[in-house]
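G., the chain you wanted modeled:
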Amino acid sequence: MGDVAQISEFGKILIFLITGIILVCLIFFITRLLSPNKPNAEKLTSYECGEDPVGGAWLPFNPRFYVIALIFLLFEVEMVFVIPWATVFGNHDMITFEPRWGVFSLVEMFIFLGVLILGLVYVWRKGDLEWIKNKPVKPVTDVTIPASVYDKINAEQSAYKVKAFSMETSLAETTTPTATTTAPPIRRPMFKPTFKKPDNEQ
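Predicted structure as tokens:
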């Protein structure tokens, strides 16, 4: 018989994942068997940091939370690429076999971290990390219409007066017929429908 093949590195990771899934499912199953099931109004309420929930779930959400969470995720997920680098850089056998791997991985990681730092500086300078921006940004457009045209339109619109609403005048206008209003003409159908009796009926 030949030698028994050893488990590869990917096989070890697969065994680790399968073991983790089995343990999590086993813990959930044991919890379902042993835990008492006695629901009440207090247990079924939504949990908000130990406080009683107030209001509905549809609340206005500040978009600054989304921006900061997105920036955090971008820089946090990029750190996953450090793990393969640390594996290669910390492998003494590979570096002693080919010393250029150590220099290459070190330079590559400096470039990678430099790109991340440049992105962080860009976001910082843009002011996306500030919760309240001190300098309001005035919107600028490339419209060639002079401001005097807008002033003229605004002056014309200010000459109009809004009529005050009252229920009595609105009812009087709807009930009193005017001489100019005429009833719409009655339209006759373009064809006359005909119905035939079936042959089997007498």
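The longest helix spans residues 100-126.

Shout if anything looks off.
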